[in-house]
Design brief:
48% of the residues lie in helices and 9% in strands. The chain has helices spanning 3-16, 22-33, 40-51, 60-69, 71-78, 113-120, 124-131, 165-177, 197-201, 224-233, 238-248, 254-260, 264-271, 282-289, 291-303, 321-325, 327-340, 374-390, 403-417, 419-430, and strands spanning 146-152, 157-163, 209-214, 307-311, 314-319, 351-354, 360-361, 364-365, 371-372. The strands form 3 sheets. Strands 4-5-3-6 form a 4-stranded antiparallel sheet. The longest helix has 17 residues, at 374-390. It starts with a helix and ends with a helix.
Length: 434
């Protein structure tokens, strides 16, 4: 490439770096060459007449070719050694174009880390502190951005990584302003407005067989690289996607990971930057990262004449006689698809549930209609009865701060499934002396 074309490219970059007005084009051209040559103004006018306000969408090479062929530009090279470049206009970062359904998401245009800091309402130095992309901040202690708690579950323990107030507010802004505007797959029912455990279970009511499966390490199993790919897919430049990823992921100190981890391998998994269970952004990001998983499992269920839904890490596929005959093969296929999509099935929790027995999804019985489990109803009824006889303090063994609201919420859950049973519970609840 000769020097004449290199200067033309530099001038093209200057013309593309701002408003397409003639005066602004002349100013940027003069700054690029370090001198206001007489031929810059006629060249700027020709560029404006050729492209007008559409100049920002012109390819760099196309504009450089027009500049190189301009009569005045050619004469500038014939009469002397030619102009020299004094200032290069580097291509500013821009939001990448989005195609398909993403084009209608109306995401905020954030092209630089500075714009991200302004959008989040923090200083640039504060953004560096919270993102800590270089891993220089203390991983534990008073300066850590997270609080940790191991919570017992049916198998082992679950680590809750709760962000502190400032980081949590930034994550909520990212959730409301970006993530909530991107639609997840229709089969995803967890952590979505208008969706619930009931909507997750309803498609499987009255089926011959219900296959229940569970994803192991759902949040910790989604690494930062996958989150970065998500933000890049949404159109954000590398620098912005990198900071958004750092704000939404976390690496657990080994000392904390070893306290409740079932093995050294699980502890090492928590050290890798991942989605923290406890951050407000994690459920929405997990749903979006599981898009291809949902697409493939939905198609696999349909191929067997069944239906598929997912509530966080709970998977459910149900159908008629065709699925009943091939349920083992479908379970194997689901496990294979999950591995290919970067997830892992917890085979201990895989349950094919047939119509002759109780079929339960997220605590909801789906044999004939969505209903509350009988043993759960009986326990709640006994608790309410004891509260009415001996006072609510005698039954608050878990130390709920607002036991009245806790019991009212449990009754409301029963009411959403079985209003007749909820009415009986409400009459007992009304007799409690608070």
């Amino acid at each position: 490439m000769n020097r004449r074309h290199l200067v033309a490219l530099a001038l093209a970059d200057a013309f593309l770096a701002g408003d397409p007005e003639i005066a602004r084009l002349v100013d940027r051209g003069a700054l690029c060459l370090g001198h206001r040559h007489r031929w810059i103004t006629p060249l700027a006018r020709r560029v404006f007449r050729r492209f007008g306000s559409a100049l920002a969408h012109v390819e760099r090479e196309t504009l450089a070719t027009l500049v190189a062929r301009d009569t005045h530009y050619v004469e500038a090279w014939s009469s002397s050694r030619g102009p020299r470049v004094a200032h290069y206009f580097l291509d500013p970062p821009r939001m990448h174009p989005r195609a398909g359904s993403l084009a209608a998401c109306d995401l905020p245009p954030i092209a630089t880390p500075g714009e991200l800091a302004t959008w989040l309402g923090v200083e640039a130095s504060e953004l560096d502190w919270f993102a800590d992309t270089r891993g220089m901040n203390p991983a534990a202690g008073a300066l850590s951005h997270y609080r940790y708690a191991w919570v017992p579950k049916s198998e082992g323990a679950r680590l809750i990584e709760a962000p502190k107030a400032r980081l949590r507010e930034m994550q909520r802004r990212i959730l409301r302003g970006i993530l909530d505007r991107v639609p997840a797959h229709g089969s995803a029912h967890g952590f979505r407005a208008g969706r619930s455990c009931r909507t997750f279970a309803e498609p499987h009511v009255g089926q011959h067989v219900v296959l229940r499966m569970d994803l192991r390490h759902f949040f910790p199993g989604i690494p930062a690289a996958r989150v970065h790919a998500l933000f890049a897919t949404l159109g954000y430049p590398h620098a912005v996607a990198r900071i958004l990823t750092a704000l939404c992921t976390n690496s657990v100190p080994m000392a904390i990971a070893r306290r409740g981890a079932a093995s050294w391998i699980e502890a090492k998994r928590l050290q890798v930057p991942h989605l923290p269970q406890g951050a407000p952004t994690s459920p929405a990001i997990a749903n979006l990262c599981a898009l291809h998983l949902d697409l493939r499992l939905d198609a696999a269920a349909a191929a067997s004449g069944g239906r598929y839904t997912r509530y966080a890490d709970d998977l459910a596929i149900s159908g008629g006689p065709v699925l009943r005959r091939s349920v083992s093969r479908v379970a194997t296929l689901v496990a294979a698809i999950a591995i290919e999509e970067g997830f892992e099935i917890n085979h201990r929790k895989t349950r094919p549930m047939y119509r002759s027995r109780r079929q339960v999804l997220t605590g909801i019985v789906v044999n004939e209609r969505p209903n509350v489990r009988r043993d759960e109803y009986d326990r709640l009824k006994a608790t309410l009865t004891n509260c009415a006889r001996h006072g609510p303090a005698s039954q608050n063994r878990d130390g709920h701060r607002d036991y009245h609201t806790h019991l009212a919420g449990r009754i409301a859950h029963v009411a959403s499934l079985n209003p007749a049973r909820a009415e009986k519970l409400s009459r007992i609840f009304a007799r409690i002396q608070w």
